[in-house]
Amino acid sequence: MFTLTFQSDEQIPLYQQLYRYIKDEIESGHIQGGQRLPSKRALSAHLKISIITVETAYAQLVAEGYIVSKPGSGYYAEHFIDNPACDDAGAEEEQPACPPADIQYDFHTNRIDTSDFPFSTWTKLSREVLSERSEDLLNACPAQGTAALRIQIAAYLKNFRGMEVSPEQIFIGAGSEYLTGLIIQLLGRDNAYGVENPGYNKTYQIFSANTSRVFPIPMDEKGASAEAISGFGINVLHITPSHHFPLGIIMPVSRRQELLRWAYSREGRYIIEDDYDSEFPYTGRPIPTLQSIDRNGRVIYINTFTKSLAPSMRISYMILPPALCQRFHNRLGFYSCTVPVFEQLTLARFMEKGHFDRHINRMKKIYRQRRDLLCQTISEGRLGKIAEISGCDAGMHLLLTIHNGMKQSQLVSCAAAEGARVYGLGEYYSFPVSDMPENIVVAGFSGLNEQQLILGAAALERAWAP
Amino acid sequence: MFTLTFQSDEQIPLYQQLYRYIKDEIESGHIQGGQRLPSKRALSAHLKISIITVETAYAQLVAEGYIVSKPGSGYYAEHFIDNPACDDAGAEEEQPACPPADIQYDFHTNRIDTSDFPFSTWTKLSREVLSERSEDLLNACPAQGTAALRIQIAAYLKNFRGMEVSPEQIFIGAGSEYLTGLIIQLLGRDNAYGVENPGYNKTYQIFSANTSRVFPIPMDEKGASAEAISGFGINVLHITPSHHFPLGIIMPVSRRQELLRWAYSREGRYIIEDDYDSEFPYTGRPIPTLQSIDRNGRVIYINTFTKSLAPSMRISYMILPPALCQRFHNRLGFYSCTVPVFEQLTLARFMEKGHFDRHINRMKKIYRQRRDLLCQTISEGRLGKIAEISGCDAGMHLLLTIHNGMKQSQLVSCAAAEGARVYGLGEYYSFPVSDMPENIVVAGFSGLNEQQLILGAAALERAWAP
Fold it and tell me: In percent, how much of chain B has pLDDT > 70?
């Protein structure tokens, strides 16, 4: 039987660890094609893990073609073929290259540390909601979400962001991706939508999947500008002013006002303000959101709990100006709210009792320490002479401009060879630009603990300044 | 202080009862404009309900303009103006007419009885998942949903629907509405989509919100036909073959095969099979789904747990043919799964332990009894002479053709005057047709208990055959 040791302090779920172990054993030939695997029950007892964990691992292996299920008989290893995904001649588009297998330090920009999530508090509140509100948990809630959660969000925005928002302007949905799709339905697919270039790749993908009229907006040192938009006939602009992804720009008030004037100057112009990183500012006083300085109902504000709580909780919200609230109820009010009532009520209670504020403050402290540690380790080592750090006044990532003669792809591949993954800035351009910087990489620090950050920085040093 | 009595056996949540009570008191003038309402804490203690219940009721009253919150002071009744919603001159479209307030028996077609939901089992499993799988609950799951749930759905479909589906063909999403939007993104907005006319209004609304090319397909006694589609240049057809809504047609095998031949006869043609009511067939042997007799990968199957479990749980799934799975991963794989991992794992365990099967069987029995009771009560009374019942071989609603000289609108309004709500068949036509029947109403029976059904049928009798 298998003899793997689970690493309980790792963030990798047990089933993933099991799946990877068996996959490696098959790829390396330790488990041979045709060999029968242990039954789920036997393996569960042997490894002292739940059957469902084994099932999940087996299911993933089946899905990827490493093993097959023979009904009434069990699971058998397939004869291993190198890179089976590439055999599929029917695939319409190219497969992404397989990632190198030995990355130990992934400076991912979209990973948060869930080990500090107050899980026992969350489960306690979950239990309370389960036992106190059984009726509410079964009946459908209003299309825009439960009043209980919308009230808490409005109170939070008032206390921590200085925003005056009524709960009836708030619309809850299963993720910012989903809400962005709703906004396109609300405003109309025929608008010309502008997205930041570079920017969050998913934003461009979502707009592309929902409308054919999406245009890349070049950035200057303050973000998108009215001048940059003017050439495209844009009437809806999507921006991340509180901390631009990936450039890290915090848009100054003057530029925010310039964009609002742009929106006011013609009917039907709107700004979608994605405030995804706003919970984690590190320096200076927070700048008012566009939503809060908008006087003409032209800003749609989006934010998410995915980054501030946990990726598995698909809860985001948008704030619509009153005229668009009315339009939403008229045109899209038939849609059911996509977030289960249970999650909404648990989160409402979590916020009401002050746990959300405390959690955000704790994580802000942790992320700031990580940022400082990474910056310090880089500055004080050999990298200090060739690396410029920028874009780290907020959020969960920073930019490294490396002056050692290497270009982006070489920076990324040399880092990978030393076990560290960073991301070339060029990856975030939906459209290439002529003056694209060639020696900048993006490094997230929120998903790595202190030891990993120190070792990861050392790996970068070996790669770039040996 | 208020003196309302909560009706604990009703399906109306406590906050709704409180909200309605206060609303009525304001409208009737018992609470006067400017009068201060009890504090949330005081009212919660007085009525022995949770503060969050009071908060939710107050929030709804604030949202609708019945009361205002004065920070640091409390809640005050607004000066009541008749029908404030209609005062809003900025509203873009017309408001629907306010429903009569005295409906006691709502034969709603989209309501399920949650009083028989095994809530204590569900909460027990929820607690197990919370305590056993903390890591999994925080990390993001695959875009198409957790393997654990997909495995259970595949097993269910095999055992109860005779469908051979691999878990990797299954995609979990927060409701059929959301999945339908994804399908349009997957197949392309430029296709010509056909929807049944009459049909489920939301289906037409979702397609309209996502594409400009949606066409109404007329029905004959077997449902949509290849001939009916031919005039529109349709290449994607959305149908409800297991129990057409609202006509109640169960599409015969011959027609299913005809539609498959239609799909096979040209590249890029697809059928979306919405199997929403399939868990509740009452007569005859179930007919194989189009998905299971499709040999060329042209059927996309959708089903939901909203109707079989509870409306508050937004869990649906679709089954894609292999080529579309690949296309999904390539084009839309960036989307996160919209259903929280916690709900997915709880449902997976609920299914794994056999609770889902037992619940479906129990509800099928209950709904069949309700259907039989309603049919019997109608047939044996004075209505028996003037009413024809049809469309009730499956699902949660039936059609009543009434031969008393009344037209649809009169049938509906006379029923409402007696306290019963039924729905004119004409409401389900997205496009009017010339031969629209004028004396047919739709009555759902799943949301009313036995006593309500008997009293509701008596109300219909008073209305239509006095």
Answer: 91
Q: Which of A44, A56, A363 to mutate to test the interface with B (most CBs of B within 10 A)?
A: A56
**Residues 6+ away with beta carbon under 8 Å from B202:** A334, B177
Q: In the sheet that B299-304 helps form, which strands lie side by side, from edge to edge?
A: B170-173, B316-319, B299-304, B270-274, B236-239, B193-197, B214-218
Nearest to A251 by CA among A281, A221, A217: A221
> Is the Cβ–Cβ distance between A196 and B336 less than 8 Å?
no
Tell if the pTM clears 0.80, that is, is over it: no
Which positions of chain A have pLDDT values less than 50? 81-101
pLDDT at position B96: 34
pLDDT digits (tens, 9 = 90+) for B147-176: 999 999 999 999 888 899 999 999 999 999
CB of A268 within 8 A of CB of B92? no
Q: Determine, for residues A60 and B313 on separate chains, whether the beta-carbon distance falls below 8 Å.
A: no
ipTM above 0.90, yes or no: no
DSSP 8-state class, residue B304: E
Mutate which of A111, A138, A306 to test chain B, going by most B C-beta atoms within 10 A? Answer: A138
Q: Answer yes or no: do B181 and A177 touch at CB < 8 A.
A: no
Q: What is the pLDDT of residue B64?
A: 61
| CA–CA distance, B373 with A257 (Å, rounded to integer) | 66
CA-CA-CA-CA dihedral for B252, B254, B258, B264, to nearest 10: 100
Q: Which residues of B touch A127 (CB under 8 A)?
A: 127, 130
Task: Retrieve residue B217's tokens.
Answer: 């397909």
Lowest mean pLDDT among B6-20, B142-156, B396-410: B6-20
Pairwise CB contact (< 8 Å): B202 & A313 = no
Do residues A451 and A372 touch, judged by C-beta distance below 8 A?
Answer: no
- Distance between CA atoms of A83 and A60, rounded to whole angstroms? 16
Find residues 172-201 of chain B whose CB sits inside 8 Å of chain A: 174-175, 177-178, 181, 185, 189, 201
* Alpha carbons A53 and A264: distance in angstroms, whole number: 55
Token digits for B465?
């055959």
Look at residues B294, B273, B249, B218 and name the one whose alpha carbon lies nearest to residue B392: B249
B370 touches chain A (CB under 8 A): no
**How high is the pLDDT of residue A349?**
95
DSSP A177-218: HHHHHHHHHHH-TTS-EEEEES--HHHHHHHHHH-S-EEEEE
Sign of CA dihedral B259, B264, B269, B270: positive
At residue A446, φ and ψ (nearest 5 deg) are -80, -20
- Residues in A closer than 8 angstroms to B129, CB to CB, are none
User: DSSP state, B123?
Assistant: H
| Interface subset of B 91-120, CB within 8 angstroms of A | 91-93, 114, 117, 119
Give the pLDDT of residue B70.
Answer: 75
Contact A127, A141 (CB under 8 A): no
Handedness of CA A8, A11, A13, A19 (dihedral sign): negative
Look at chain A and count its residues.
466
Considering only CB atoms, B336 lies closest to which of A175, A327, A343, namely A175
Rounded Cα distance, A152 and A174, in Å:
17
Q: Which neighbouring-strand residues pair with A316?
A: A173, A304
Q: Which residue has the tokens 């172990």?
A: A21
Each residue's pLDDT tens digit, B445-455: 998 999 999 99
Angle subtended by helix axes B341-352 and B147-161, to nearest 10: 40
3-class secondary structure, B383: helix
> Angle at CA A212, nearest 5°, toward A210 and A215?
105
Task: Give the Cα separation of A274 and A421 in Å (integer).
Answer: 27
